[in-house]
Design goal:
single chain; 378 residues; alpha/beta; Aspartate Aminotransferase, domain 1; Aspartate Aminotransferase, domain 2; 2 domains; 11 helices; globular; binds pyridoxal-5'-phosphate
Length: 378
């Protein structure tokens, strides 16, 4: 009855765990939820000025918002104009559109290992064969492994800035090498960049796509982590040759993104998005430091980890093999939600890992959750 690809549609572990994690009293380190205190809450008076938003709009997005996004992208070193911008219904939609544009059964897709699991889920649905490249939490992807995967890839998907889940941020020099390798191979590069603004110890290097000379590219970002995920808005900027195809795919998917959200975000950009982010960063920094302290005190001898310089996650590697799914179930019984690391791999990983989100819980909850986790492990 169903299309063949439905057999490849695995249930998302994230959604299952998030459902359990939202039970009252559960301390959640599982999802990628921004801090409740950091969510952008527009003044209700602003809604009065949005009376023109109830009619259908343009597939590509509201013209002023596209202009503003293009200006931000140019400031990041991406040569583009507003005609290359597509406003998305969440950057997850960009993953869906890029999957539809490039992937059919057997398309070889280079992915980081570990990689953002909802991207892997979408690529798999469309029939991708994966070419995983290990991302070391300290040194990132090995140049030789990257190059040999690229040699047979038909699409490369990277999250080089505060990667979900590893937190790794590619330094400028590594970005240069990757751009040169992508150009040499002529493989389309899909760069996913939702965490760039959440930089705790200085700005991240400019995106890889701006360093390309000839390879086709799609760059995408999100307003979920800086403003509010409930607005469901992201954007992509693409090589001019790809824009008409992506626009038609978006038209077929949802006609256009929510106009109210687009205008609320435009107002936020005009009022200074960067100032809003500067105000919320201390909340994140405090929580990150609280998790680093709690990890050291409670699990210091059992795990290794890097303190993330941006993004929302700690990537924690056990020194000895641990059944992280059994741990997840027992932790939930103890009122703590965690995310097993193997969910982020397309093949069986070498190490037992966890992804722990630090943004959603208060410092006191982080301490309590880590203490409960430690007592389960000991
Ligand atoms: C790497 C990455 N890409 C895309 C998304 C989707 O974000 P949204 O649809 O909220 O913009 C996420 C969400 O966590 C993510 O981590």
């Amino acid at each position: 009855m169903f299309a063949k690809r439905i057999e490849r549609l695995t249930s998302s572990l994230v959604r299952d765990i998030l459902a359990a994690a939202s039970r009252p009293g559960v301390i959640s380190f599982a999802g990628g939820l921004p801090a409740e205190e950091a969510l952008y809450r527009p003044d209700p008076a602003q809604l009065q000025s949005l009376q023109h938003c109830w009619q259908y709009g343009q597939t590509e997005g509201e013209p002023q918002l596209r202009e503003a996004i293009a200006a931000e992208a140019r400031a990041l070193g991406i040569a583009c104009d507003a005609s290359q911008v597509l406003v998305l219904s969440g950057s997850q939609q960009g993953i869906d559109l890029v999957s539809k544009l490039f992937i059919e059964e057997g398309t070889r897709v280079l992915v980081e290992a570990p990689a953002y699991l909802a991207a892997v889920q979408s690529f798999r649905l469309f029939g991708a064969d994966f070419l995983p490249v290990t991302v070391d939490p300290v040194t990132g992807p090995d140049a030789q492994s990257f190059k040999s995967a690229l040699d047979s890839a038909q699409l490369a998907y990277l999250t080089p800035t505060f990667q979900n889940p590893s937190g790794y941020c590619y330094p400028a020099e590594q970005r240069e090498h990757i751009a040169a390798a992508v150009d040499a191979a002529g493989v389309p590069l899909f760069e996913d960049d939702p965490y760039r603004e959440l930089a705790f110890d200085g700005a991240a290097p400019q995106p890889i796509v701006g360093r390309l000379k000839n390879a086709p590219w799609v760059y995408q970002g999100s307003f979920s982590k800086t403003l509010a995920p409930g607005l469901r808005l992201g954007f992509l900027v693409a090589h001019p040759a790809l824009v008409p195809h992506l626009t038609r795919l978006k038209q077929a998917a949802d006609l256009h993104s929510n106009r109210l959200s687009q205008h609320l975000i435009l107002q936020a950009l005009q009022n200074g998005l960067h100032e809003h982010v500067a105000q919320i960063l201390p909340v994140y920094r405090e929580r990150r430091d609280a998790m680093a302290d709690a990890l050291t005190r409670h699990l210091g001898d059992l795990v290794s980890w890097q303190k993330p310089v941006g993004g929302l996650f700690f990537w924690v590697r056990f020194k000895q093999a641990v059944d992280t799914h059994a741990l997840m179930r027992r932790a939930l019984e103890a009122g703590v939600a965690i995310m097993p690391g193997d969910a982020f791999y397309t093949t069986t990983p070498e190490h037992s890992c966890l992804r722990l989100n630090f943004s959603h819980s208060s410092p006191a909850e982080i301490e309590e959750g880590m203490a409960r986790l430690a007592s389960l492990l000991r």
